């Protein structure tokens, strides 16, 4: 039987504390809304930028199976040491779910190796997310498409490595498309980028959005294996016959 | 008709200047051997670590379609500014061919986002490279497999992102396997990692090895397109009907 | 230097001979329009359903590097023997470009192994094709997006295997998205599916469409290698020490 | 909580009834050995070639979440109608695990669309399977590599579509390599090909082999979604403004 998955939801928690309209939408922060909305056998904690070590101490990360990340205006305030710590943990097996503007989070860019740039426009237009990988566990329980009445637009070209799977592809009212649900395997860890979630809209109260994130947590939870070992010369497993000179 | 491809071969050029047995194998450096052995409509120059800006000035890179890279003991001596410059050029379209121990080159690790670690062993064992993507242009003219009588072993797990194509898979006498020819698309650029090429062996005099690198240069040459443009809000291409609140 | 690529353009050639509005758009057939519009070092011939062996004799296929296919209402009239012949040639290295309604062509379905179903709607709506693989040679010379003022809609979920690369993703006025330019490697051959091309619209007179098909011909041309050999037991390349019982 | 997974293990069951040495290894058939060795919350039944409808009636398939398949000498005796039935169910969501010589099973070839050919040799040599996708759930609990003392060799090039993930890569004593654990997504279903399992060796009594198959059952179990709907024209979700002529 699968153990309880330990989830840490990280939020820079800046818009909610400075903009009244965001505060009204997310009185407990977006991390609070997500924590309240996830459905599954999860043990959830939250962490924010202003906490010591951004709430992501070695201990917290060691006890985290899947880390959810939301950042936007304060990417630069995240310390490089914490970024390195999180990235290392992902390569060792911790799942990472990067939400919306976290495409530009230091840790996501570091793990992708590309600019992670994209086109954008915030006019509150309609987004329709189509399932383009119906056999994928992140699509479980999701209809062929679902709509968000108002969202910021993110458009292609999205400068990421070719995802291992593209679970959702978005249609935008203003004429753009986007790979909105992207899976990556890195080291012993898994990464899911999920596009929706501009702070001005009630996206993290949407049933389908919360279901996708819940599914993604299950998908991204670590497989149980011994740690990867590297960095030293290994003996031969079979006899080597020919010597060079 | 395709234009001449401008190739820059970069080598840290350290072993050849310090170890007599390497110098004997590669009197002109490994970069010299590769430059002499490439076959195609190429305009070739070379660059080395000790040159100003490591020989990779803005001008040189602007005039480079495909950069070949060999580094090993001096990865740390490569300046971060040059690494950033090279990585940017790759995302803008310049091809990159990373050879052998360059799996640990700063620029390769930066573009991959993973540790790029692997198992290794230098006992001069036999390597046999099998073609596992026979429709790929990098496999053109290559038999179903070819052998290198003596090579350093690199073994799985190789901590890279899932390659977009795996053109070669190696069998090693000592009992290991390795994804030896790996293609990646990053931004507007293409990257090929090719495993063989330990400095102690005459690998860069091997016909098949040189043919693979020549094919890879053609494959990695930039497609001609306008530069990617990012980083600013874009207007809607279609009317947006519903306003939020 | 690359040799001239021998292209055969196959068309069921039914709509053009039965519907006046299609005949007006394509007086030489869609195959004729494509033949006239391709740009490159190509030796082009055409073939149609009504010819003996549908114009695809062993000799013709043996002299074909890349086969372009357009079919729609007469998929069932294509003989299974010819389908098998074409599929075999693809696995042996011949490129295949399947256009528009050829997603349902017997040979495409056979090579995909899936239903190749999709959603569709013919209301002559606007299609906008976004480049989602800017480093791919099929995107050479193509702007970040291009539009077709009127097209039939094809929408996701498109029941194909995950493409090896998705070069174009379409936005449709009526609210759908589609993976419109899909690359597949099969055996020693390459396959490109390109979505646009409903017979009622002047799609095959569009500059960007013709450029994409021209690029795809170059991409799909066979690499020069010895034929794949299978189906017989092979001797060991290395000594086998332990015998079973 | 995940429901019990309903597994059907299909075996042609020919070698075990005709060859004493195979019968000795697998007195209950290979299907029996696998049924006894799977570990998980599974409801298992078996089916064999000689049963009516090969034991794969509509009812049985409707009640099957994951089908395991072993065939070799009697591929041709499997009726095309049953093959079509199984393939359809896979596209609708049923998982399929194809073992060893089932690379040539009609249903596997149909779903792959390629020849599924490979090199082979039966000299009972050593096989060592390396994990090349350590974050994949099928690798759970598996060490970095495991060995089978005696197996038939299958070697590259293996003529399959590029797998969506390659979980294992095999080293063979006789000098070959092979992609031994291959994942494919097709329609709403998932397919896993797993190489080991020649009838002459005790492979299906091996702990790691049984663990891999158990993991694969969990991975291949269907996601719960409404069935894919195709084949009819769909209305526009958004207004279409411009009419063609």
* Poorly predicted ranges of chain A: none
Overall geometry of chain A comes to globular
Largest interface: A-B, 50 and 50 residues
CATH topology label of the domain at 5-112 and 180-220 in chain A = Rossmann fold
The helix/strand order of chain A is: EHHHEHEHEHEEEEEH
Q: Give me the CATH architecture of the domain at 5-112 and 180-220 in chain A, please.
A: 3-Layer(aba) Sandwich
* Approximate strand percentage of chain A: 25-35%
Q: Please name the fourth-level CATH homologous superfamily of the domain at 5-112 and 180-220 in chain A.
A: Class I glutamine amidotransferase (GATase) domain
Q: What is Rg of chain A? A: 19 Å
* Terminus-to-terminus distance of chain A: 56 Å
Alpha-beta content class of chain A: alpha/beta
Number of strands of chain A: 9
Question: Major β-sheet of chain A, in short?
Answer: 9 strands, mixed
Share of helical residues of chain A? 10-25%
Mean pLDDT of chain A: 96
Highest-level CATH class of the domain at 5-112 and 180-220 in chain A: Alpha Beta
Quaternary status: homotetramer
Keywords:
homotetramer, about 240 residues, Rossmann fold, 7 helices, globular
Structure explained in plain terms:
- The structure is a homotetramer of 245-residue chains.
- Chain A has a domain at 5-112 and 180-220: Rossmann fold, CATH 3.40.50.880.
- The longest helix of chain A has 14 residues, at 207-220.
- Chain A is built from seven helices and nine strands, in the order E-H-H-H-E-H-E-H-E-H-E-E-E-E-E-H.
- Chain A is of the alpha/beta class.
- The relative contact order of chain A is 0.17.
């Amino acid at each position: 039987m699968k153990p309880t998955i330990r989830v840490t939801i990280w939020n820079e928690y800046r818009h909610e504390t400075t903009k009244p309209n965001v505060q009204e939408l997310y009185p407990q922060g977006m991390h609070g809304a997500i924590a309240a909305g996830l459905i599954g056998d999860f043990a959830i904690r939250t962490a924010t930028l202003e906490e010591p070590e951004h709430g992501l101490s070695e201990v917290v990360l060691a006890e985290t199976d899947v880390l959810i990340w939301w950042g936007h205006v304060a990417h630069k305030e995240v310390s490089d040491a914490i970024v390195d710590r999180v990235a290392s943990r992902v390569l060792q097996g911790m799942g990472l779910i990067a939400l919306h503007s976290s495409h530009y989070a230091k840790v996501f860019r570091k793990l992708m190796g590309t600019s992670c740039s994209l086109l954008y426009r915030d006019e509150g237009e309609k987004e329709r997310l189509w399932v383009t990988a119906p056999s994928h566990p992140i699509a479980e329980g999701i209809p062929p498409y679902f709509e968000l009445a108002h969202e910021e637009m993110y458009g292609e070209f999205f400068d990421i490595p070719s995802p291992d799977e593209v679970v959702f592809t978005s249609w935008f009212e203003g004429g753009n498309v986007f790979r909105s649900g992207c899976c990556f395997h890195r080291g012993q860890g898994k990464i899911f980028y999920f596009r929706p979630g501009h702070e001005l809209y009630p996206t993290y109260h949407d049933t389908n959005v919360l279901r996708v994130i819940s599914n993604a947590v299950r998908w991204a939870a670590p497989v149980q294996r011994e740690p990867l070992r590297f960095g030293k010369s290994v003996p031969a497993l079979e006899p080597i016959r020919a010597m060079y000179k």
